[in-house]
Design goal:
Multidrug-efflux Transporter Regulator, Chain: A, Domain 2; two-stranded antiparallel sheet; 5 strands
Length: 259
C-alpha cells in the first residue's frame, strides 16, 4: 500500500507540515519518488506512530531522534510494533486540566484549600505557571484522597510517599534491565524471528498484571515479616492473635488443607 503525504497525514492524524518537519530530521525515511510525487508506505505509518508514542511519554524531539537513530531504516512495521509494545505505558500519565468544581466532583466532596495544597505536595495535582490545575491521573486522586482521609500526620504521609517512590523506581529499573538483558537479548541474538516477536508482544500484555500482582503480594508478605521482626524476643503473643491462629488451625484440620 502506498500513500501520498496527504493520505499519510489522514492515516496518522499528523499534519503534512509536521510530517515534512520529521522527514527533515530523518525521523522517517525518505519517500519513494515517482515523478514529482512522494509515496509512503506502512513503514512510514509505523515510524510516525512510534514518534507519537514517544512524545506521549514525554520524550523531547532530540531524544526521539536519538532513539530512532538506533532502529534500522529498513525495520519492518511488525518490528516497530514490538518497540511500541515495549514503550506502552502501564498507567496513563496524561495530565488532565481540571478546575475546582470538577475536582470536588471527582473527589466526591468539596476539597478545601489546605487539602488541595496536600494533593499538590503528594504529586496528585499540579499547578501550572498560570495558576491552573492539572490532575495527574484518576488513580492518583483516589490514592491522595485516601491518604488525606486516613488522618495520618502529613509529614509521615510525605515520608511514606518518598519511600515508596524510591523503592518502586529501583524495582522498575531492575525489572526492565532484567527483561532487556534476557528476553529481548535472546530475541535479538536469535535473528528476530517473526514468531518470537509476536509472542513477545503478547507477553508484554500478560506480564503487566502478573508483575503488579507479584509486587503487591511480595510487599504484603514483606510487611508481615517486618511486623514479626519488630516484636521483641520473648514478647507474649496477644490473646486475639492466639485465638485467630487456633481457629485457623482447627479449620485446616477439619478441611484437610494446610494452614
Amino acid at each position: 500500500m502506498q500513500l501520498t503525504i496527504a493520505e499519510l497525514a489522514a492515516r496518522t492524524g499528523i499534519s503534512v507540515r509536521t510530517i515534512r518537519f520529521y522527514a527533515g530530521m530523518a525521523l522517517i525515511p525518505p519517500p519513494e519518488v515517482r515523478g514529482r510525487l512522494g509515496l509512503y508506505d506502512e513503514r512510514h505509518v509505523a515510524r510516525l506512530e512510534l514518534v507519537r508514542d514517544l512524545q506521549g511519554l514525554g520524550f523531547t524531539l532530540s531524544a526521539i531522534e536519538g532513539y530512532l537513530a538506533r532502529i534500522p531504516v529498513g525495520c519492518t512495521p511488525e518490528d516497530l510494533a514490538l518497540h511500541r509494545a515495549l514503550l506502552a505505558p502501564w498507567l496513563p500519565e496524561d495530565p488532565e486540566p481540571i478546575d475546582r468544581a470538577e475536582l470536588d466532583t471527582r473527589a466526591g466532596r468539596a476539597v478545601p484549600d489546605h487539602e488541595l495544597d496536600r494533593l499538590v505536595a503528594l504529586g496528585v495535582v499540579r499547578r501550572t505557571h498560570d495558576g491552573q490545575l492539572q490532575l495527574t491521573s484518576s488513580d492518583m486522586l483516589a490514592y491522595g484522597m485516601g491518604l488525606i482521609e486516613a488522618g495520618m500526620d502529613f509529614d509521615v504521609q510525605l515520608a511514606s510517599k518518598e519511600i515508596i517512590e524510591q523503592h518502586t523506581s529501583a524495582l522498575a529499573a531492575d525489572l526492565v534491565a532484567l527483561f532487556r538483558g534476557s528476553v529481548l537479548r535472546d530475541y535479538r541474538d536469535g535473528g528476530r524471528p517473526p514468531e518470537q516477536r509476536d509472542r513477545l508482544i503478547a507477553l508484554m500484555e500478560q506480564i503487566k498484571p502478573l508483575t503488579v500482582q507479584g509486587v503487591v503480594t511480595h510487599f504484603q508478605l514483606a510487611v508481615n515479616r517486618a511486623i514479626r521482626e519488630s516484636v521483641p524476643e520473648g514478647a507474649t503473643t496477644p490473646k486475639a492473635v492466639q485465638t485467630a491462629r487456633a481457629v485457623q488451625t482447627a479449620r485446616a484440620v477439619h478441611t484437610g488443607s494446610p494452614s
